[in-house]
Amino acid sequence: MAAVTRGLGATAALSSANSKKFQFTTRRSLSGRKGSFFAVESNGNPRSSLNRHNNRTRQLVTNAVATKPDSAAASTVSKPGHELLLFEALREGLEEEMDRDPHVCVMGEDVGHYGGSYKVTKGFADKYGDLRVLDTPIAENSFTGMAIGAAMTGLRPVVEGMNMGFLLLAFNQISNNCGMLHYTSGGQFKIPVVIRGPGGVGRQLGAEHSQRLESYFQSIPGIQMVACSTPYNAKGLMKAAIRSDNPVILFEHVLLYNLKERIPDEEYVLNLEEAEMVRPGEHVTILTYSRMRYHVMQAAKTLVNKGYDPEVIDIRSLKPFDLYTIGNSVKKTHRVIIVEECMRTGGIGASLTASINENFHDYLDAPIVCLSSQDVPTPYAASLEEWTVVQPAQIVAAVEQLCQ
Amino acid sequence: MACSATAQIIQPLSINSARSVDNSDACAKILNPSSFLVSTPRINKKLFSVNKSISPFARRSATVFAVSSDVVKEKKLKSNSSLSNLLITKEEGLELYEDMYLGRAFEDMCAQMYYRGKMFGFVHLYNGQEAVSTGFIKLLKKEDCVVSTYRDHVHSLSKGVPAREVMGELFGKTTGCCRGQGGSMHMFSKEHNVLGGFAFIGEGIPVATGAAFTSKYKREVLKEDCDEVTLAFFGDGTCNNGQFFECLNMAALWKLPIVFVVENNLWAIGMSHLRATSDPQIWKKGPAFGMPGVHVDGMDVLKVREVAKEAIGRARRGEGPTLVECETYRFRGHSLADPDELRDPAEKAHYATRDPITALKKYMAENKLAAEAELKVIEKKIDELVEDAVEFADKSPVPARSQLLENVFADPRGFGIGPDGKYRCEDPKFTQGTAHV
Predict the structure, then answer these.
(1) Most CB atoms within 10 A, among A313, A344, B56, B79?
(2) What DSSP character marks residue A20?
(3) Which residues of B touch A14 (CB under 8 A)?
(4) Closest C-alpha to B403, from B186, B161, B189, B178
(5) Measured CA angle at B325 (ends B320, B328), to 5 deg
(6) DSSP H or E stretch at residue A234
(7) What's the predicted TM-score (pTM) here?
(8) Residue B32: pLDDT above 50?
(9) Which of the following is catalytic: A209, A253, A283, A295?
């Protein structure tokens, strides 16, 4: 069964005049229709038709905050879908795409016999063979370049960086070749690679294994960057990234691999360029991505108890930004807080701040607040490490101050 | 192992004599190429031989021999000059001559056009190295891939990219092979499988390795009938770069159908190969990774062709990669901006006497393969072709502003969703090239 990629209109043709139907009123209802496929819209804006479908989508998302599974709310309804952990969701997405298209292959260190350092490719070497799940020597620059050459000649490689930080060694190939060859060749060669791996601050992994590379890569023209945060969007984004003809960098987070969630049995593919509405609200827009989403949701609980109504958006697409979802939110709440794990200087938050100021300045009642990690190499000591990243208490304080 | 210390032609700077008393392997004087290096005194019938290992996990043992041009020379000497013993037929000879002459004429025209202000930036000319390009690329099929560096005009021409398209690209016009977006250092052709054109040295080698990987993948995973080979061309300077070594390792490890062709012209801009490299004998680096390393006289197209036949044949048969070091020389500076003051005029004069085009001409005359008149016809044809290319490029339109944002993404949805909810690429200003993305 084929999945429908959520794009503008359902086709790749961009001449559709119906682009305004971004609010997606034409979704099919899911009720009782097992075995069908559906396109997923992540915008669960309550202003549009509050149908049961919308509610389901929203529930699916907010329950990913904690690891406790879907409880009372869905118990009366039949529970389609299956529960799994985030790394299993990535694996499922990757496996489905490898089954679907024999040109999809995986390259990286220890992806084959070892099953991946975070088990995302466990079992693949037995199933697909050593060439399709290629255990590479430790030569990031060269095997990333090799993936690019393979992509130019017809394959669709998924490159795994054992830790995103190692991709700094591949920066030459990612910047010069990945991003640029489609352009410098005048459109003759496309580079449908996916570069993925775990990054972010973990538990006392030390400075070099706790890097956030999204800020370094964001200026490279010609690539897209997405960050997954839940099993649901991990699988959907993995599939979308593999199907995209653009080079996509998929940022995963070391601490999120064991998140559990119930995801649909049906095949689904998410949209690479869209943001995800996590919690609609009225008072303030909180933009976040990856692990910080959970700190934000934790802070949201406290804030709700204190009487605030934050709107939380997981931007998901780090490059390009989904200015529509973000803009709509800004126009509604007039206050923005960005919570990210990236460094303060030149990070995603910095770009996002500039972008929002440029596009939605008139709608802001207050300057944008950007909470980022300190410009500090991540220390080993747990107490210090805790203070380099944004904690829920800081988010609560920032919202309170902003909403005075 | 012979390493004669005779006429010191190629010494821009004096090498301290301590080096020459080192063990002969470290001999740094590259002089008469035929006295170069033979690692074993006996030369086997086959140019290369590698023990095949049984299981991919067994320790690879490769008995490799480096072959000097002596082998080919011997072959030639044995012949009594009858046509059947020659290395090439008349048709092949004419083809090789035409290709080399095209390379030379084109590059000379590039220089003219540059100084007349028709092309700008960094332009790196290939004069003098034609034997390598012609010797290798004329043995390829259309589906085989070529990866080059910034000195890529002639590789593209040899592979079949029309001179008009290359000149158009150099002039920055839309009719260029890359729509004017790549320029001198980024020649690409999907039709002729030229995978670039790279500005940073060493960058293309992993891409070539990837193309070779695809070939192997098609054969073994997709079960297609595929024996495509990839050639990676790069210089002596690149052989000190990590990507070179990393790719030698991977190519040998997985027996990829690739030939690594080193165009050792002794100079990396102003850095002499001898000053930059601990062991200047690049061919030796092949066996270190488990593949044959061959040294060949890169100023002689027939010798290059013989070595290329074997190397490409090896790759096609699935026997793995080969490292071929072609000793060659560029007659001009590194680029048109290089005053070329550092190289010894005596060195340049020496190599000028070994001009590959003159050498082939002489060979064909001596062996009665072609008359002077026939070659003149070819030369005239090529001169007209190059003139036509210039005229074509001159008359071609410059890219319109609307071309600015095309081709950044294969899927232009990558520019994202704008504040109005529409994809940026749907914005009419996008197609005009004036959209803010």
Answers:
(1) A313
(2) G
(3) 412-413, 423, 425-426
(4) B178
(5) 150
(6) helix A231-243
(7) 0.82
(8) no
(9) A209
Could you tell me the pLDDT band of residue B295, with boundaries at 50, 70 and 90? Answer: very high
Quickly state the pLDDT bin for B437 (edges 50, 70, 90): low
Residues of B in contact with A221 (CB under 8 A): 408
Q: Does ipTM surpass 0.85 in this model? A: no
- Rounded CA-CA distance A371/A361 in Å is 19
Q: Please give the Cα distance from B86 to B84 (Å, whole number).
A: 6
Q: Is A69 on the interface with B (CB under 8 A)?
A: no
Indicate the helix (H) or strand (E) that contains A106. strand A104-108
The pair of three-digit structure tokens given for residue A237, joined into one six-digit string: 């984004």
The answer to which of A254-268, A320-334, B77-91, B97-111 has the lowest mean pLDDT is: B77-91
CB contact under 8 A, A176 and B205: no
**Can you give the three-state secondary structure of chain B, one letter per residue?**
CCCCCCCCCCCCCCCCCCHHHCCHHHCCCCCCHHHCCCCCCCCCCCCCCCCCCCCCCCCCCCCCCCCCHHHHHHHHHHCCCCHHHCCCCHHHHHHHHHHHHHHHHHHHHHHHHHHCCCCCCCCCCCCCCHHHHHHHHCCCCCCCEEECCCCCHHHHHHHCCCHHHHHHHHHCCCCCCCCCCCCCCCCEECCCCEECCCCCCCCHHHHHHHHHHHHHHHHHCCCCCCCCCEEEEEECHHHHCHHHHHHHHHHHHHCCCEEEEEEECCEECCEEHHHHCCCCCHHHHHHHCCCCEEEEECCCHHHHHHHHHHHHHHHHCCCCCEEEEEECCCCCCCCCCCCCCCCCHHHHHHHHCCCHHHHHHHHHHHCCCCCHHHHHHHHHHHHHHHHHHHHHHHHCCCCCHHHCCCCCCCCHHHHCECCCCCEHHHCHHHHHCCCCC
Any CB–CB contact under 8 A between B146 and chain A? no
Cβ separation of B421 and A324 shorter than 8 Å?
yes
* Residue B433 pLDDT: 74
Residue of chain A whose alpha carbon sits nearest to that of B175: A186
Residues in chain B with CB shorter than 8 Å from the CB of A321 are 416
Which of A57 and B82 is assigned the larger pLDDT? B82
pLDDT digits (tens, 9 = 90+) for A201-214: 999 999 999 999 99
pLDDT score at A65: 37
Q: Is A140 a catalytic site residue? A: yes
CA nearest to A330 within chain B: B419
Check pLDDT > 80 for residue B64.
no
How many angstroms away from the CA of A79 is the closest CA of chain B?
Answer: 33
Q: What is the mean pLDDT of chain B?
A: 84
> Residue B334's closest CA among B222, B230, B201?
B201
Tokens 């996002």 correspond to: A352
Which portions of chain A are predicted below pLDDT 70? 1-79
What's residue A79's pLDDT? 60
User: With bands split at pLDDT 50, 70 and 90, how would you rate the model's confidence at B171?
Assistant: very high
**Are B407 and A187 a contacting pair at CB < 8 A?**
yes
3-state SS, one letter per residue, for A32-62: CCCCCCCCCCCCCCCCCCCCHHHHHHHHHHH
Write out pLDDT tens, residues B326-359: 999 999 999 998 988 899 999 999 999 999 999 9
